[in-house]
Amino acid sequence: MAAAVEIKNLSIRNANGRPLVHNSSFSLESGKTYCLLGESGSGKTLTSKAILGMLPEGLQMSGDIMLHGKDLNRLSKREWRKIRGKQVGVIFQHPEQALHPSIPIGRQLCDLMLSHLPISRYEAEKQAEKMLSQVFLKDTAHVMKSYSHELSGGMNQRVMIAMALLLRPEVVIADEPTSALDVTTQAEVISLLHHLILELNMSMLFITHDILLAGYLADTIGVMRDGEMIEQGSAARILGQPEHEYTRQLCRYRSQRLLGKGGASPNASSSTAVQRNEWKANSE
Ligand SMILES: Nc1ncnc2c1ncn2[C@@H]1O[C@H](COP(=O)(O)OP(=O)(O)OP(=O)(O)O)[C@@H](O)[C@H]1O
To answer: Which GO terms describe its molecular function (predicted)?
Structure first.
């Protein structure tokens, strides 16, 4: 069976020809989670934007991007719009990247459904509200009528997850979706996302600078640095037998955090609550 997403020799250059992502190849297998792990500026977001057909103007891309064996390189803008939302759901870091500030949440969810599915607005409203309850939002009727700025950070992140999963896409791309949240809310949202992805049997590309999050979520981890994929493999292998010195450094940091010794992160992050959950899971 073809991989959910397959990237072959992806390179992205800026207008001066400087490589921002260099010859990166990886596969996201169906029903699995692949974490792209790397420090700021390593090329993770550009990689995800390339997969979504949303690279900023002025950047040059080469290589192949396949979605279930379909070559995405040759798609028109119109074809891309059909794929985003329906086949690939996206969860961004900040609500303002996905949610319109002056349209109520319920209408945004309904409009997304109506632009892809032949259903009535009444049916779309019912399904949207059901999805909001699936992400454990309380008082869904109230959330449907609310604007994004009236909700907390954690609630907005749940709404974005609802929006990304609404059309049951085969693939979800989540780019640092919780790094703007406090650690407790982060743990709740990550565990919700993990649970839904498994329950709905989706494939997820999760982008993070946080090795604790990658260890918690990933089946496979790809480590990026300065635009290069320096190492990739099963999460167990990467975390247990890292080959590259940079990955070893990240793993030492992870061990210190799991043992509660703190220590400076090579790429500064503090997922204490998620780490506590992971530790709990490991010790059960
Ligand atoms: N539109 C652009 N034009 C030129 N260079 C860019 C553009 N967007 C990103 N870059 C550069 O490409 C490199 C990779 O950026 P990218 O956003 O993919 O990194 P990242 O790993 O996602 O980091 P972060 O976690 O900080 O977002 C960086 O050096 C960045 O400055």
So the answer is: ATP binding
Q: Which domains does the chain have, with CATH numbers?
A: 30-54+76-87+171-284 (3.40.50.300), 96-168 (no CATH)
226 band by pLDDT with thresholds 50, 70 and 90: very high
Q: What is the pLDDT of residue 265?
A: 55
Q: C-alpha 11: how far from its chain's center? A: 20
Q: How far is the CA of 129 from the centre of ligand 1 (A)?
A: 36
d(CA 166, CA 266): 36
- CA-to-CA distance for 4 and 29, rounded, in angstroms? 5
Residue 27 sits at φ, ψ, to 5 deg, of -125, 135
pLDDT at 264: 55
Question: Which tens digits make up the pLDDT trace of 111-130?
Answer: 999 998 999 999 999 999 99
Kindly tell me if the per-residue pLDDT of 152 is higher than 80: yes
The pick from 42, 60, 61 for probing ligand 1's pocket by mutation, whose C-beta has the most ligand atoms within 8 angstroms, reads 42
What dihedral do alpha carbons 105, 106, 111, 116 form, nearest 10°? 110
Q: Determine the atom of ligand 1 nearest the C-alpha atom of 209.
A: 25
Question: In this predicted complex, what is the ipTM?
Answer: 0.93
Token pair 């057909």 is found at: 53
Question: CB of 56 closer than 6 A to ligand 1?
Answer: yes
Structure tokens at 272: 């204490």
| Whole-number Å distance between alpha carbons of 132 and 152 | 15
Global pTM reads 0.88
